[in-house]
Design goal:
Layout lengths: L6 E11 L13 E11 L5 H16 L5 E7 H11 L6 H8 L7 H11 L4 H11 L2 E2 L1 H9 L6 H19 L6 E4 L12 E7 L9 E8 L16 E6 L1 H13 L8 E5 L5 H13 L4 E2 L8 H10 L4 E5 L1 H6 L1 E6 L5 E5 L3 H15 L1
Helix pairs in contact: 1-7, 2-5, 2-7, 3-4, 4-5, 6-7
């Protein structure tokens, strides 16, 4: 089109390609869908950049993924660091792509690439390393502004933008999830200003889920396709829909699949009626309970049912428990067992269930 609106907001879902080494179990596909949100045109500084960060925070919270961090940085700060440390200007982008690997590799490995592959002076690499491993919020901005780096024109401009971004994030109520992280580089060459990436913290098994959203400012890209090279400032963010779906599916696999709280079980034959009595006691006290509707199910089968359905507690009755007036309560997850008096086993079960909820 020969006409471009002075300001434009848009969002859309699309299929993209771009991963040569997919990892299906981690939601990393060769071809996948993502949701893009973009702002084009002239706006007051950092307003649309902040809204992109806010949108990511709100989306992740809405999906009950609260343990996340949105890393933010600025290409002008990175360029200022490289210039300040003595990197030749023509090597800014290659060195930037090396810094971008710091979320997956150690500084020693990144430095090795800078020196042995990119041909950078080791002393220059060491200076870069002292800076790009820093992270913080307003405290880091103040530290950098007071340092020698603050005298660099490019870095100073980026730090000014970053301070405004953090102030606006505070006003939008999302600053707690934001980290000013100098290791964030996002290797794509078209970014010109703010860059950001949303990272989910490792799950309970220690698996690093990684990035679920990313984006930044690309003020010079769209203008290439506009009449007479018209400048069209742009900023946007992409949400990895299929990555999020993959994480949500995994969370569902580890969540309870049943509303049943207690399974009534026995390990000996001829105790169907005794199981029914315990089951009715639980029902009359408003606890969700069930038993296997078989006359003589194997105890292991009953335990397996509780595990498969994620029923937190098993109430076990046997000949010895009948004689002693007891009931054995078993935590399905920890396998811990507790022998309690039959006349108060419902209260004990309720107390143990409360503990199970707190643990989960």
């Amino acid at each position: 089109s020969n006409t471009v609106a002075s300001q434009r907001k848009q969002w859309y879902q699309r299929r993209v390609r771009g991963r040569d080494n997919p990892a299906m179990t981690k939601g990393r596909y060769r071809e996948f869908y993502q949701c893009d949100i973009d702002f084009a045109g002239e706006y007051e500084p950092m307003l649309t950049d902040t809204e992109c960060v806010k949108l990511v925070c709100d989306i992740l919270k809405e999906l009950d993924m609260n343990n996340f961090t949105v890393k933010v940085n600025h290409r002008k700060i990175l360029d200022g660091i490289f210039e300040h440390c003595g990197v030749p200007e023509e090597d800014f982008r290659p060195i930037c792509s090396a810094v971008d690997k710091l979320d997956k590799e150690s500084w020693e490995d990144v430095k090795k690439e800078m020196v042995e592959v990119k041909g950078l002076d080791p002393a220059v690499a060491d200076k870069i390393g002292l800076l790009v491993q820093k992270k913080g919020k307003f405290d880091l901005i103040e530290e950098l502004e007071k340092s020698d780096l603050g005298a660099n024109k490019s870095a100073a401009a980026g730090l000014s933008d970053m301070k405004l971004l953090l102030e606006y994030c505070q006003l939008f109520g999302c600053l707690d999830h934001v980290s000013f992280d100098l290791s964030l580089a996002r290797g794509l060459d078209y970014y010109t200003g703010t860059i950001y990436e949303a990272i989910l913290a490792p799950d309970g098994k220690g698996e690093n889920v990684g990035s679920v959203a990313g984006g930044g400012r690309y003020d010079e890209l769209v203008g290439m396709f506009a009449p007479k090279g018209r400048s069209i400032p742009c900023v946007g963010v992409s949400i990895g829909i299929e990555r999020l779906f993959s994480i949500m599916e995994k969370k569902m696999q580890h969540s309870r699949t049943s509303s049943i709280q207690v399974l009534v079980a026995s390990g000996q034959k001829g105790l169907l009626k005794e199981r029914m009595k315990l089951l009715n006691m639980l029902w009359e006290n408003d606890l969700n309970a069930e038993m296997l509707y078989k006359a003589n199910p194997k105890l292991l089968t009953q335990f397996q049912h509780a595990e498969n359905e994620r029923i937190p507690l098993v109430a076990i009755i046997g000949e010895s428990e009948l004689q002693e007036g007891k009931v054995k309560l078993r935590n399905t997850v920890t396998k811990e067992e507790k022998l309690v008096d039959r006349n108060c086993f419902v209260e004990e079960a309720r107390s143990l269930l409360q503990g199970c909820e707190n643990e989960s």
